[in-house]
């Protein structure tokens, strides 16, 4: 595949001086590699793209598979120092959704806290999973938590390009080519990479609150009956200004953070 590495670098380095763009044919995991580098003191901003990953990871350690050309897998790493980290994965998801489906005509929606879903009537749950997000942070060498120097933030993204073949998943996957015929991984990267960097830099300044309404407008779970992983049930009512999901339960409305429980539509 031919990747637009130089064009991306020119566009992105104007926003983030010192940033580099790397494209590797194969790696275990782009997130794992950038976390390794950060722990070794390498915290320069970087966009790392892999044509294929042998040990890609999603949230809660779930594997993410992708053959060459069948998925876009990359990680964007840079030092960030926001006043509040809450809602970062939601901001990332919103950026991806806006880049891939600017007007919402393709039906790309946000499944709290870190997936992109598309309405799919033929799927058992009525939804197909298009993309996933994994965010990790590391402290540079010699720093301790509580310092005001920020953290090295690694934003990992996996987007299905070709329609995937997978069984046994709670949400059936689908590919971007199901929505935009013929689109390639390099073309998808061109759509999402620079806006994602802009989103991260804006998040550092203003946090999630300015994005609350935009997220709720694309929220896949809004007003749906949901089941929480701790066994409770309720109705999803969007997210608050910190990115916590609001769920009406028998005990009243509760704000659910992604660190506590996961949420599935009934």
What this model shows, in words?
With 266 residues, the chain is an alpha+beta fold. 23% of the residues lie in helices and 30% in strands. Strands 1, 2, 5, 6, 7, 8, 9 and 10 form an eight-stranded mixed beta sheet that branches. The protein has a five-stranded antiparallel beta sheet with strand order 14-13-12-11-15. A two-stranded antiparallel sheet has the order 3-4. Helix 3 packs across helix 4 (185-206). It is globular. The protein starts with a helix and ends with a strand.
SSE topology sketch:
Elements: H1 5-13, E1 20-24, H2 30-39, E2 46-50, E3 56-57, E4 63-64, E5 71-80, H3 88-100, E6 108-111, E7 115-119, E8 127-138, E9 151-160, E10 172-173, H4 185-206, H5 212-217, E11 225-228, E12 233-239, E13 245-249, E14 252-256, E15 263-265
Parallel strand pairs: 1-2, 8-10
Antiparallel strand pairs: 2-5, 3-4, 5-9, 6-7, 7-8, 8-9, 11-12, 11-15, 12-13, 13-14
Helix pairs in contact: 3-4
In quaternary terms, these chains amount to single chain
Number of strands: 15
Write down the Rg: 18 Å
* SSE class: alpha+beta
Topology order in helix (H) and strand (E) letters: HEHEEEEHEEEEEHHEEEEE
In this structure, how is the largest beta sheet organized? 8 strands, mixed
Q: Give the number of helices.
A: 5
Mean pLDDT: 90
End-to-end gap: 40 Å
Show unreliable segments.
none
* Share of helix, binned: 10-25%
**Overall geometry:** globular
Strand content: 25-35%
């Amino acid at each position: 595949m031919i990747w637009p590495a130089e064009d991306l670098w020119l566009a992105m380095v104007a926003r983030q001086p010192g940033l580099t763009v790397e494209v590797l044919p194969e790696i275990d995991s782009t997130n794992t590699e950038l976390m390794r580098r950060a722990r070794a003191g390498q915290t320069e901003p970087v966009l790392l793209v892999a044509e294929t990953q042998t040990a890609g990871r999603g949230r809660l350690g779930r594997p993410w598979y992708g053959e060459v050309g069948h998925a876009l897998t990359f990680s964007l790493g840079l030092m960030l120092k926001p006043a509040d980290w809450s809602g970062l994965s939601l901001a990332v998801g919103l950026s991806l959704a806006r880049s891939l489906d600017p007007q919402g005509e393709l039906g790309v929606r946000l499944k709290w806290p870190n997936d992109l879903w598309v309405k799919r009537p033929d799927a058992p749950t009525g939804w197909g999973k298009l993309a996933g997000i994994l965010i990790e942070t590391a402290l540079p060498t010699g720093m301790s938590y509580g310092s005001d120097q920020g953290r090295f933030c690694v934003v990992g993204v996996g987007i299905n390009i070709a329609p995937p073949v997978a069984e046994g998943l709670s949400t059936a996957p689908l590919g971007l080519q199901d929505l935009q015929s013929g689109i390639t991984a390099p073309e998808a990267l061109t759509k999402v990479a620079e806006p994602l960097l802009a989103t991260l830099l804006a998040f550092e300044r203003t946090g999630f609150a300015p994005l609350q309404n935009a997220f709720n407008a694309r929220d896949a779970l809004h007003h749906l009956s949901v089941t929480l992983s701790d066994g409770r049930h309720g109705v999803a009512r969007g997210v608050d200004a910190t990115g916590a999901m609001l769920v009406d339960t028998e005990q009243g409305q509760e704000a659910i953070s992604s660190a506590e429980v996961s949420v599935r539509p009934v």
